[in-house]
Every structure is written in C-alpha cells, then in structure tokens.
Design brief:
heterodimer, A: 115 residues, mainly beta, B: 108 residues, five-stranded antiparallel β-sheet, 11 strands, 0% helix
C-alpha cells in the first residue's frame, strides 16, 4: 500500500454510459497525475494537477474526458459517452513538490471495461 | 520511435540467475524511474535516478546521462521477482513517459 487509493478498482460499463473515477493522494502531496495503460503497453500521461490547478492535459484527453481536483486533495476523472477504446487501466500518482528528488507514488489503478 | 525503449520485452530466467534490463531514452530528463508492476496493475517505484548508481537489496540501478541509458540489475533472482519492470523518464514537470515494460518470469 503506497498510501494512494483509487476507487473503484474495477468498473464495467456499457458503451455510451458515463463513468467517474476517484483518486485520493497521499495527504500532503500537492502534485497529482493521471495516466492510462492499455493492455501490453506502458502507461501514458493524461493530465496533472498542482493543488487544484490543472496544469497540463495530453492530446489523449479528448473532450469526453474531464478531470478535477476541487480542493487540492482528491481528484476525479470522468469519461462521458464511453467507447470501447476507453477500456484501460487508469492510474493515479502523487508526489510532493518540494525538491527534484521526490518520487511519484502510484495508486492501485481502476480497470475500466467498456462493453 | 518511442521516446523510451526497453529491452528485452520478455525475459525468462532460472532462479538464482543475474538479470539485466536495459532502458534507452531520447529526450532530456530530470530523473529516470524504475517501476515494478504485478498482475492486477499496482505499480511500485523501485528507484528514481538522476545520476550514478543506486542499490536496494538485490536490485541495482545505474544511469549514464551522456549515453541516455539505464540498466536495472537483479542479483540472485527469485520467482517472487516475476513482474513487469517499467522504465519511465520525467522532465521538468515530472510527468512521466514510460517504456512498454519488460515481462520477467523467474522459474524455480
């Protein structure tokens, strides 16, 4: 247990439905990252927050995706009108922006299956 | 060409063997990470390197910044080391770019 939690751990949904995932980082960590990992591939960057500000979004994050971190603590990632291509593991990581030597701590991931 | 290349993609070893996984990258970095991922998805950070060499137990990680290359070594491998090992590099904002991973299977 790294201290980063994600819920739910698994989500099965039908194409066209909306889904929302939650990430709770380590409490004092001010940087929070979302990554997506498809089968057999390494994770890919989606977006990241410093406190409540979303500082960067990947081109992978289409208009159907939105992420928030309203109070600079937990974050949510919502996918609207899901498509089969959205099936993946969604990973969250957090780190403390104090020095350049602080590593990222990963959550267990949310595995999404779109039928 | 991917920004982070790992080799080999798959590696099978016998218990006790010395294992090396390689990572090459093509971008400027602030740090390189070696991560371990077990079936089920959870990722654990093994090392974060910006220069030189680090050792933790049976694991050793090295990086050559000039050559943009890193290696992860496992001495006296054990079946519990079986996992996917992922190399990732971070830039100034520390968002990570990942390799595809190396699937290691250590047989008893």
């Amino acid at each position: 247990d790294t201290g980063v939690s994600q819920n739910p751990r698994h989500k099965i949904t039908k194409r066209g439905q909306n889904v929302t995932f939650r990430c709770d980082p380590i409490s004092e960590h001010n940087r929070l990252y979302w990554y997506r990992q498809t089968l057999g591939q390494g994770p890919e960057f989606l977006t990241y927050f410093q406190n409540e500000a979303q500082l960067e979004k990947s081109r992978l994050l289409s208009d159907r995706f939105s992420a928030e971190r309203p109070k600079g603590s937990f974050s949510t990632l919502e996918i609207q009108r899901t498509e089969q291509g959205d099936s993946a593991m969604y990973l969250c990581a957090s780190r403390l922006l104090v020095s350049s030597y602080n590593e990222q701590f990963f959550g267990p991931g949310t595995r999404l299956t779109v039928l | 060409k991917n920004e982070v290349e790992q080799s080999p993609q798959n590696l099978t070893a016998q218990e006790g063997e010395f294992i090396t996984i390689n990572c090459s990258y093509s971008v400027g970095i602030s740090a390189l990470h070696w991560l371990q991922q077990h079936p089920g998805g959870g990722i654990v950070s093994l090392f974060m390197l910006s220069s030189g060499k680090k050792k933790h137990g049976r694991l050793i990680a090295t990086i050559n910044i000039q050559e943009k290359h890193s290696s992860l070594h496992i001495t006296a491998s054990h079946p519990r080391d079986s996992a996917v090992y992922i190399c990732a590099v971070g830039g100034s904002n520390y968002k990570l770019t990942f390799g595809k991973g190396t699937l290691l299977t250590v047989n008893p």
